[in-house]
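Progress report, Aim 2. The chain analyzed during this reporting quarter is listed below.
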Amino acid sequence: MIKNERQYRITRAQAEKFEKTIREMEDARPDKRTHARLRQAQIDALRSQLSDLREELEEYEALRSGKRRPLQLESFEDLPRALIQARIAAGMSQEDLANRMGVKAQQIQRYEATDYMGASLSRVSEVVEALGMKVQEDIFLPGREFSLVKLLRRLSGIGLDSDFVRRRLLPRPIGLVESEAEKGEHEVALEVVEGLHRIYGWSPPTLFGTSPLELDSSASAVGRFRLPARVREIGLGAYVIYAHYLALLVLQCLPNLKAERLPTDYKEVRRGILEQNGEMSFESALRYVWSLGVPVLPLNDAGAFHGACWRFGGRNVIVLKQRTRSAARWVNDLLHEFFHAAQNPDLEEHPVIEESEMSPTRRDSAEEQAASRFAGDVMLDGRAEELAEQCVEAAKNRVELLKNAVPLVAQKARVQVDALANYMAFRLSLQGLNWWGTANNLQADGTAQMCTPRDLLLSKMSLGLLNPVDRDLLLRALEPVVIGFAGRIGSGKSTLSMEVAKMLGWPRASFGDYLRSVAKGSGLDESREVLQELGASLIEKGVEDFCRAVLAHYKWSAGEPLVIDGIRHAEVVEALRKVVAPLEVRIVYVDVGDDKRLERLRRMDESMPGKFKEIESHSTEQQVKELLPALADLRLAGDRPVSELVSVIVDWVH
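Predicted structure tokens for the chain:
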């Protein structure tokens, strides 16, 4: 859409170039080296692009001349475009509107460049009034209180807690518009309301009104769920609709993923998985499911459900929600949902289930039990029931002896201990016995060989097919990773890590700051030399315990994205990957020349040049120099502007 005179002149010039090129191609003698059909296809492509440009020019000219009325608002989604059209039809330039509102012209330009997504609702309200627009009250109601506090309170009442809303539904920086943030006003941006409208169908008058918010239960009715114990029903309903919407977006990004016939025989499924990589692993199972045209969406939020499956227009999508490091648990949940996806293949969508998500009938249904047995048979080669009986016999019918019996039976049968433990826990649950805690203690750490479902999904999706609001919603759901910063002393990594954390809206931890707090609490000097020795001693005592202590110091919760600064040891990178699993750890290494580093350090401490060589000779700094660059996922020249580096890193994360 053309939004100002400058864009109009540029578009008109482009159209004239296309017209000239088409005439020249039509008048030119046929080139024997180019097939006539190919030449005509090139001309047709140019004509198509010229047609699009002419359409934009005609729309702008018609609005500017008053021959065309602005868009009639029929829904909230039309509001941004209607605002721009109304300004043009009123004969107002962006500068004219800015003057009427008492803001800078560049501000209006930025608003319109992003279709007002970055503008606060109060600002949008001011634009509506400045343009003299009449908007239906059920679409947008100017003059309301559009505070973030009120929004969070309203959403909390329907089961969306503020932490989830901030991490998943609010853009970064958290729902604040740059120009309004200077005033300290916690205003809600239009993008926030647009996202909520898309997911839940709530318009601004509904969101900021007084009537209770209501949920559409159809999303949860057509899904199949694996429910964890002690789930709050109120929170489940709201989250299900969110996950349902993300599943739709995933399919929209995969228009060429062909849905194949899904086998229901465990033998065929097991054979197909083993053909992937020759082993019953999570990666093999994941790639097998994808090969049949079923995308897998991993979500990392606490509570709600362990897994779900939806079918839209004959296309299935599986949602997995796990925070465990056990590959066997991931495989089990994936196969469980695959079983649901394979049922009723002739139906375009899953049949609607009217019962509540929390009802015992739905949770303990025959189909749920069949799905768990199917997963067990795929993983245990059809011997799930047989091996479960052997475990009971070996334990002499005593539950307290099963922990020792399961590994013995698994070893004798040459099956995975963790897979058998999971099936045993399922079988005991049918008798009202909770053995999952013990089963968890028998799980092998599968992080080393686990394929990341997030990366596989991102590698296959065409995110450009989504509108910006939907794209950001999906990326925020998929982004939990841990970004570690490393670099030599004076490289600027700490400043860079703080700016990246601020831009992403993620919490930040620092190994260096943690060591300073330990030194201070122990009455030690906080010099670099002391911190080097302190860090080395803590790592020697136990590197994983050291990493856990740092994360606990910053109150990090499993599954949260994190920026962590000051990684100076190769063993810390390895330990960190184990501690935060199943999240991915990405290392950014900031590289700066010695002269530049020394100059920076001199500005912070005039005595540094005299101590520089001694500090650099420590074994810790040798690791930073020689080992960490090879472990980095991204290496950056730290002498570039910080804002430029931040932009590169944020784009890389997404």
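Strands lie at 224-226, 296-299, 307-312, 315-321, 481-487, 508-510, 562-565, 584-591, 634-637. Residues 425 and 433 are 8 Å apart (CA to CA). These observations will guide the mutagenesis work planned for the next reporting period.
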